[in-house]
Specification:
Blueprint lengths: L8 H20 L3 H22 L10 H8 L10 H8 L2 H5 L10 H22 L5 H4 L4
Length: 141
């Protein structure tokens, strides 16, 4: 499957909301590694949505801190999510590749980061005028 990535912030925020819903589902089945991956994905997509809303084509990177560094110049309030970005960046690689020495994130820790990720997605959505579809708006989004 190939195609052109959307440059519409709302498309990216819809995907971010779906990823956040997946985190809840994966936590319910005790898949902390999968939940961490989708949490990272949600934050990445939200930050890229903000950049797109400013006419910036985001780089194809997974480093949330680098994306946050770009995003805070347009939305300084996102600085409060720096620790989330630092931690969640580490959730991407272990899900994608086999590592022997990397433990999955702790469930309680993930729930805490999930709440912050929801706040970040909500803040970006509010700044860009995003209204999640009804099917995505439950669960605090």
């Amino acid at each position: 499957m190939s195609g052109v990535e959307s440059r519409h912030p709302n498309d990216w925020l819809e995907k971010a909301c779906r990823d956040l819903r997946r985190v809840d589902v994966l936590l319910d089945v005790d898949d902390a590694e999968g939940a961490g991956f989708h949490l990272q994905q949600a934050v990445e997509k939200a930050l890229k949505a903000l950049l797109l809303s400013q006419g910036i084509l985001p780089r194809r990177i997974r480093d949330l801190v680098a994306l946050l560094n770009e995003a805070v110049s347009y939305m300084p309030g996102l600085e409060s999510f720096r620790e989330l970005c630092e931690v969640a960046t580490g959730f991407y690689i272990p899900q994608r590749y086999p590592f022997l020495s990397v433990s999955p994130p702790d469930r309680e820790e993930l729930e805490e980061w999930l709440n912050q990720a929801k706040e970040l997605v909500h803040a970006v959505g509010a700044a860009t005028g995003f209204k999640p579809p009804h099917s995505l708006s439950s669960g605090g989004l």
